[in-house]
Give the backbone structure.
Amino acid sequence: MDVREQLNILGRMGENPSFAGKIREINRFPLMARGIDILQINLGRRCNLSCRHCHVNAGPARTEIMERPILEKCLQVLETFPIATIDITGGSPEMNPHLEWFITEAAWLNRRLIVRSNLTLLCEELYRHFVDVFVQNKVEIVTSLPDYLESKSDRQRGQGSFGKVIAALRELNARGYGRKDSGLTINIVHNPVGAYLPGSQAALEHEYRERLHAEHGLSFSHLFCITNLPVGRYLDYLMESGNYEDYLRTLWHSFNPDAVDHVMCRTTLSVGWDGSLYDCDFNQMLGLTVNYGAPDNIMNFDMNRLKHREIVINNHCYGCVAGSGSSCQGATTGA
Amino acid sequence: MNYYEPKDLVDFPNIAEWAADQGNKFFEYYGAATGAGKLTEREKSLIALTVAVTQNCPYCIDAYTTKCMSLGISSEEMMEAAHVGAAMMAGVTLAHTTQMRKIIKKKEM
């Protein structure tokens, strides 16, 4: 489904109020940024997997890859401004040929350095060396494991993916990741395998910890619960399965006013593969660049105009404020 | 219009209408009874789902099936819980044949 069609569907809210109308009711409109604490850099849409929930629509056939001049500009911005967290995502970041160089350069900046890896590539000869790169640069790894049951996880991410993640986790554990006092962090992302919201993050983390330890001898740092937003391939799934209206209604009825104050876009700036700037990775996939006078490409970066910009919102934003709230760091309201 | 409509599930928070005092006390009790305590939220959700299927409540079945999925409870675990409910219902039925058998034995020549 192309971007225009996705936005058309998201615009049809039926009897439910638009997101803008909803936050206007609680005096949170317009939604404003309050700084840039996280620079989230999307290295491209190429991926070895084609997960059914992927909002990026990433896959092996995608060709969009961030080139080195854009990455050099990201480094320059990071050197100039005290942005606390560098969050590298994709697609599969490992499939960008500049990743190793970028990690090495970014590590010198001594910031929190995150790579969102699906881990399955680390089992392949061509990419195995990234384990060393991650360890040497103390990269914080965030990986997706939608369920602790192989059958459910594989239904979402593809046959055999669960086994590869388990194998990679085993090696990362052996290298210190997820072990107390090692200084090496690996966080797991849970997202529902279907048309429902994630449950309590604390309860699910407990269950993941018990099961992964008992059944596979594995440990990890924390679990992040992330709500699936109706964007990209997940929107396709909702439409094809006849779940779209129910899901939107569920998001709307789970609206949590407290979560509005904690949405990640208020402290995050997202960079697309071509340098375009967005309020979040979901807006990026909907082609909704930053607006309202803020520069929309990293080549024209202007901290003063970006740090207090008005956020571009649409109805998919309901996903980040439903229930306990959702962000790339998991639940936002402590449940 | 049907007697049961899925979208009516969202009316549940309004059941205190016209009797707010009692309704609000019910919600307070409901929250305390179903929230995590000595039993986990998972365990209580499975109990609630089992009661829902045995009592044929479409709203509760919808709500607690979804809640169990959200908590990572597998289809197999939910089905096992339903069988506990089914076995209990069968057992309750057959246990009540005691009264039936006692009456028969008393009244038959």
